[in-house]
């Protein structure tokens, strides 16, 4: 039989930017979302990996505490093999792939094998880290050029590679990457070749991330400063007058949530608003949704739904209590081949402006819109219009309290409850999160409902943590309201902040009041 060779895959060599996930390019993000396999290392950052599609293979080729990074030749070969297997591969690299990214070697081997590849440029740390420290690499009055230099090699090799005299005579800004370990040598060389000892210097470590730290000095002092501060890589060394602009232009570090990595545990489709608010305030959001809403699976729930959906005549009222409720209601209608016009005689009650808005999107103006987002609020709004003997369908999620049904029944109404959706713990593990918690790289954990508390603890246990409550001690905990806070305390967590109003605004306010220095360990 004739053998058809498998079609070859494609490799995208993508710049991930310096760390702030928002700094990946639109095209880079698309490559990441479409890849079957993502090959990444430490500088590319865990946050971006969340954009990989579900089920994508993620291969880490960076350094781990207990083993060396994969050799460059092995990475080159790995990319070739994956492509020959027919995969769409995204090789994610910190910063820009062409700036000390060894993209040339990867691309060369791909070309040799006739594999299609694309280079997707990124925002290099050489420019972005200084920018986030308030240092523009060029400036009308201070520098008309900049030069990006490696500091990676041993001193004799550096001497071979770098023409110190020419570099020193250039009037522009010098940016050394991979140079922290050689800082003293670099500073000495520059002075020996004629740069003034009082030339301003800045070191920006982990620029654009929650860990960003900056120190400044001069060529004469910076090595001692760095030693005193215990300053470690990765950092960009900035040499030149532009460093003086920092005093005026510093911005990123002044944002209220700067330096804080915040865990967002809400369901994926609800997380984005909170994430955006955190990022607007200068924090770094990390999403690990511990809640997923899905169609009910238990036969009893499905039966109850079928019953209700095929008997619109049996009801006078339909109560929908959330945006999710509205969405799932229409999914069920469709599944049952039903038509909303069959419910024309039923009066519809919605809770809260967002639920009302969701209904309007389907062309429905609710008859009653409860202003207060709670079961008590529904009853208050409904009560003046309801009469004993009427029948209501309470269509909600599986975790709702029975309060409204009981109250209606106490007033002589008939109320049927149906679960439009189930709240479950998603199946996907996140080893990065475990590692970040262990290394206390998560500074604030947010809980937006009681089930986010129980589910996060369950998920961490499933991922092998024996005592998740203990593991969360290294972070501060912020809850959206009292009920959530109580659940957290009952689970053995310390609660550092509780929103006064149970809204995202309230949660943000509560987070902004947290003491940045406080360590709860
Ligand atoms: N291709 C990358 C550079 C890779 S070389 C880029 O364009 O940014 C690795 C060096 O980059 C590190 O040693 C450090 O000097 C610098 N670097 C990378 N990310 C950084 C960051 N977020 N903050 C400061 N320096 C960074």
Topology of this protein?
Layout: E1 10-15, H1 26-34, E2 37-40, H2 46-49, E3 57-60, H3 72-84, E4 88-93, H4 103-112, E5 116-120, H5 125-132, E6 146-150, H6 155-161, H7 164-169, E7 173-177, H8 183-192, E8 200-205, E9 213-218, H9 222-229, E10 235-239, H10 246-249, E11 261-264, H11 268-280, E12 284-287, E13 292-294, H12 299-309, E14 317-320, H13 323-335, E15 347-351, H14 352-361, E16 368-370, H15 375-382, E17 391-397, H16 403-410, E18 414-424, H17 431-438, E19 444-447, H18 450-462, H19 468-471, E20 476-479, H20 482-490, E21 497-498, H21 504-512
Parallel strand pairs: 1-4, 1-5, 2-3, 2-4, 6-7, 11-12, 11-19, 14-15, 14-17, 15-16, 17-18, 19-20, 20-21
Antiparallel strand pairs: 7-10, 8-9, 8-10, 13-18
Residues 18-19, 43, 93-96, 99-101, 124-126, 129, 177-178, 204-209, 233-236 line the site of S-adenosyl-L-homocysteine (SAH).
Distance N terminus to C terminus? 67 Å
Mean pLDDT: 92
Question: What's the Cα radius of gyration?
Answer: 29 Å
- Got a strand count? 21
Strand percentage, roughly? 15-25%
Task: Quickly give the structural class.
Answer: alpha/beta
Q: Segments where pLDDT lies below 50 for 5+ residues?
A: none
The percent of residues in helical segments reads 25-40%
For the biggest sheet, the summary is:
6 strands, mixed
Number of helices: 21
Instruction: Please state how the strands of the largest beta sheet are arranged side by side.
Output: 13-18-17-14-15-16
Globally, the shape reads elongated
